[in-house]
Amino acid sequence: MDWLKTIPSKISIKVLKAFSSEDIRLGVKKLLNGVFRIAWQSVVILTLVIFAIAPVVYWLTMPIATPIQAELIVDRVTFRVEKQTAYESIPFHAITVKAFQGIRFKPSAITEPNQKPIAFNRQAVEILAKEYSDLPTVMMETATPATTHFNLSKLSIAAGTEMVLGVKTVKTDKDVHNQLSLEIKNAQSGAPQATIMHNLGFRGAFQVETRHCQVDNLQLPPTFNITGLSRRKPFIEITGQSDRLRLILSISGNNAFEILPAGVSVTGIDFSWEDMVEGNRVINYAKITEGKISYPAYSTIAPVKFEESNIIALGKTDAFQIDKMIFNPEGKGIKLRFSGLAKEAVTTFLRVSPEISIERRLTRSELFAETSKFWAVMFDILKWLIPVIIGVVGIVTINFVRILQFDNQAEKGAN
User: Fold this and answer.
1) 71 pairs with which residues across the strands?
2) Between the CA of residue 137 and those of 156, 373, 400, what are the distances in Å?
3) What's the average model confidence in pLDDT over 36-49?
């Protein structure tokens, strides 16, 4: 039975003799050429597939008009009102008026700071700005800031007017209080008008301090006291410059109040502004204490939250509705919530690197996933499966054509 053990070795020797070294070399060469050809075809087809599906991928991943709602606490915001609106009654104990033409009121009596009488039962007094600039300033403060206050009872804003709101904390020798700045710019219906009333009515006393102003040809010191106002006209009227007015309100206490009523339509919401520093333009950004962007129409999409280091930028022409605008002394800012259809870009970026921004509108692919779970899974499968199928079909087709060409050449050779 030992002869059986020699059969495999004999067969191996015969197989090796049947294939010469040249045959092995040619076989390896053909194998490598086939692998290289398939790899080259795969790269070419994959490139063609990428170029073919790129427009579809671009269409699916492009941000589209998205209903959004943003809520944040911010220390400054600029916007343009789209319809005639008016500020709510805002309480404050002192006011600084800038960019004005005149301030008019009818006092019952005027005294010097030392209570020395100056005039009694005068007709209306008008404080006029000496020049058309920000230098003329009038400051008014209630006689007892701890217990009495003014009310901004009327400030009508015409459609198309730009508003700038700002909040900051001020420390003085007397106290620490918040300041709310209201600035009207590019007024569309002539000089802005504001009306102020004392909470004690005509009995309300207050102090007036003027800079770069003249008082109706009356010789008055820069600082004087008003012991009360006329019973028939117990209010102060302020007329701004032709297209602007700035009011800085000093507010005591920690009581929150509404600045604008809900439902006001605005455009051009902006949290940045330009300043001139040594002849150079410098872009400043508002401080956002906290904020988030949510998508009310798509409940399963998580909101985007951002902190103090982040800034949000919105389109200049997109219209949004103010849902809430509250003076928030505890948060040291304006609590703002607005909603609407964002057609232009909505981006967030770090304050230190504004050139790197993230688009926050939704894409079609995200909406497909939101509207149907079936299409969400199908879309995930197809976006990987379609390129693979196209690649395999392409490689098979190319090789099938090559086989047909080889067979045709073989038939011609046989003939």
Assistant:
1) 292, 337
2) 22, 63, 89
3) 68
Q: Smallest Cα–Cα separation from 248: which of 112, 337, 150, 126?
A: 150
**Given the DSSP bridges, would you call strands 150-157 and 206-211 parallel, antiparallel or unpaired?**
unpaired
What pLDDT is recorded for position 4?
45
Q: Is 237:192 a contact under the CB 8 Å cutoff?
A: no
Q: How far apart are CA 343 and CA 292, in angstroms?
A: 18
The per-residue pLDDT for range 172-225, each reduced to its tens digit, is 777 778 889 999 887 777 788 899 998 888 888 999 999 988 887 677 888 999
Chain centroid offset of residue 92 CA: 29
Range with lowest mean pLDDT among 39-43, 258-262, 276-280: 39-43
pLDDT tens digits for 329-343? Answer: 776 789 999 999 999
Residues near 205 by beta carbon (within 8 Å), at least 6 away in sequence: 142, 143, 144, 225, 226, 227, 228
Element (H, E) at 383: helix 373-414
What are the contacts of 47-55 at 24+ separation with CB within 8 A?
A: 48/394, 49/387, 49/390, 49/391, 49/394, 50/387, 52/390, 53/386, 53/387
Query: pLDDT at position 15, please?
Result: 47
Determine the Cα–Cα distance for residues 128 and 119; give it in Å rounded to an integer: 19
- Residues 267 and 79: beta-carbon distance below 8 Å: yes
CA-CA distances (angstroms) from residue 382 to 60, 126, 166, 391? 13, 76, 51, 14
**What confidence score (pLDDT) does residue 77 get?**
94
Tell me which residue of 291, 356, 231 sits closest to 73, measured CA to CA.
291
Residues linked to residue 320 through DSSP beta bridges, in sequence order: 266
| pLDDT at residue number 16 | 46
> To 5 degrees, how large is the angle CA 113–CA 115–CA 117?
110
Note whether 206 and 94 are within 8 A (CB). no
Nearest residue to 127 via CA among 64, 220, 31? 220
Question: Which residues face 267 on adjacent strands?
Answer: 80, 319
Residue with tokens 């009581």: 255
Contact 151, 199 (CB under 8 A): yes
Q: Which residues have a Cβ under 8 Å from the Cβ of 293 and sit 6 or more positions away?
A: 68, 69, 70, 303, 304, 306, 312, 346, 348, 360
* Pairwise CA distance, residues 58 & 363, whole Å: 10
Where residue 277 falls among pLDDT bands split at 50, 70, 90? Answer: confident
Closest to 255 (Cα-Cα) out of 188, 330, 313: 330
C-beta of residue 65 within 8 angstroms of C-beta of residue 361: yes
